[in-house]
Amino acid sequence: MNIQISKWLLLAIISSSVFLSVMDIFIVNVAIPHIKTGIHGTDSDIQLVIALYLLGYAAFLVTGGRAGDYFGKKKVFVAAMLLFVLTSAVCGFAQTPWELNVARFFQGVSAAWMIPQGVTYIQELFPGGPPRVKAFGIYGSVAGSASVIGQFLGGILPETHALLEGWRLIFLINLPIGLLVMPMALFLLPTDRRGQRTGFDHSGVLLLTGALVCLIYPLIRGRELNWPLWCVAMLVAGGVLLVLFIGDQKQKRSKGRLPLLDVRLFGFRDFNIGMAVVLFYFMVQDSYFLINVMLLETGLGFSSAETGMLFVFQGVGYVIASLVSLRLVPLFGKKVLQAGVVIMVVTLALHIVVLNGPEVDRQLLYPILFAYGTGCGSVLPSLLAVGLKNIPIELAGAASGTFSTFQQTAIALGIGVIGGIFFSSLGPLPDVAAYISAYRIATITNMALLALVGVFLWLLPGNEAISGEIVPH
């Protein structure tokens, strides 16, 4: 095997990490009602199944990148893959909501330690030029394909009747993939020395993790429990921890130490606007799947297989539009993203029109979801480039890591806030009309959030072409 071929084989091994990480977000979305029934969970339990994975990922992403420098990328990649397999097994055999959600959090942590190693390996294996562009293009395509495959399997597997309940297979399917990749990674990935002793910001990780959990957990649990005092106390504690975290990061920077978050980034107006875009866009992204799945499957009686196929159409629209938008953004700048936001708002309005009663025209849903996917695909792939285009090159890596952390946190926040609006609007004994009404309220809220995305995109300077290489984190 020559060197060129071996590089592409290594890329396939590396890309398995992003495939598993992304698939495990989307495969769960479609299967949520089955999981709820299987673990005898509540509405907040299933919100946490999504949110805790994302919080684990968000809180440990930057630390995961530094772990590769400290211990060696190969060791961290294999260890993280092993943890991902083990936590997937725990999820698959979980008997209670508590077991499932604890495992989901650590599954997210393991994903946060896998992904940065793969990105760094690509940068080393493909030093620059067209091969690197092609490698990152393949890596991104794998992530896009994982979202579509996840939605398809999330619909099919829960209806599979075998020795185990079908919903458990959406987690256990990770085992054969991980067990195949781990020995290949162990024997084929190049061994690197323990490199830059950058160390870890332990206090930063603890403060950030505590702040995120204290803010998101009560937002999800509080509604169901009538907002007990401990929920309010946790929200206050989350705010305090966030303030302490920012102060801690500033202090470390002033002393010349390497903080988890480079607070200098928030001195750039464009960065702050870009983070507002990220916040409101990603609050919509996964909450869209949650409320649509609950309406279609629990409210209107769609099978999970049919729902999964609908979302496959949405995913195909996303993949096609993302490939086109990556060619258009260098020419037309943020106008491409603004057009995508308009498509998303219009097609969400069409969702409300079509999903207005128990007799739904299925044939209309397919093109509507496809069109919604094209809107997403016009926005998401270039969001990082647009938001960070005026950041100095020496801060680009820190900005990329902050972007990714903020992205996952915003998705979890959207699950808590929009999911909370949806479930609180259902009432204690919901019928079809209650589901449709709750869906309408939550979707109009998402349309308002997308309108804010449009406003903040407008505030970003200029429509000039966007160029330059953006390295994903």
Question: Can you describe this structure?
Answer:
The structure is a single chain. The chain has 473 residues and is an all-alpha fold. It folds into 3 domains: 1-187, Up-down Bundle (Growth Hormone, Chain: A), CATH 1.20.1250.20; 202-259; 261-468, Growth Hormone, Chain: A (Up-down Bundle), CATH 1.20.1250.20. It has 16 helices and no strands. Helix 2 packs antiparallel against helix 15. The radius of gyration is 21 Å and the shape is globular. The relative contact order is 0.13. Residues 1-5 and 467-473 have low confidence and may be disordered.
Give a quick precis of the structure:
The chain is an all-alpha fold and 473 residues long. 79% of the residues lie in helices and 0% in strands. α5 packs antiparallel against α11.
Task: List the keywords.
3 domains, mainly alpha, 473 residues, Growth Hormone, Chain: A, disordered N terminus, 16 helices, disordered C terminus
Chart the SSEs and their pairings.
Blueprint: H1 3-38, H2 43-71, H3 73-93, H4 97-125, H5 129-156, H6 169-172, H7 174-188, H8 202-224, H9 229-254, H10 269-299, H11 304-332, H12 335-354, H13 362-379, H14 383-388, H15 396-426, H16 432-459
Helix pairs in contact: 1-2, 1-4, 1-5, 1-7, 1-10, 2-3, 2-4, 2-8, 2-15, 3-4, 3-7, 5-11, 8-9, 8-15, 10-15, 10-16, 11-13, 12-13, 12-16, 15-16
